[in-house]
Amino acid sequence: MGATIEDVLKTEASCSNCQACCCRLEVMILTDTGVPDVHVSLDEWGGETMLRLDDGWCSAIDRDTFMCTIYENRPLICREFEMASYECTNERALHVLASC
Known about the structure:
Elements: H1 5-10, E1 40-42, E2 48-50, H2 76-80, H3 86-99
Antiparallel strand pairs: 1-2
């Protein structure tokens, strides 16, 4: 049996248990941090976003380690998204729900 939402809410997020759920969110590129063009997509209004692949994951995430392959050049939104914040916990819980 997999984790439940209650398990997720009781367990504080850390580098060792992060499932990179935030890497499935749409991320606008608001400032120039050097994101390589291969990871940039244009939305329907012409705004730059991080490219997400057909499975919904960010193209810059390493699927084996769940680590960002462009960490030093990641977008501002990614830099400001705090591990274990309300938003992080909420995304982790939604990820568990979607897995059920």
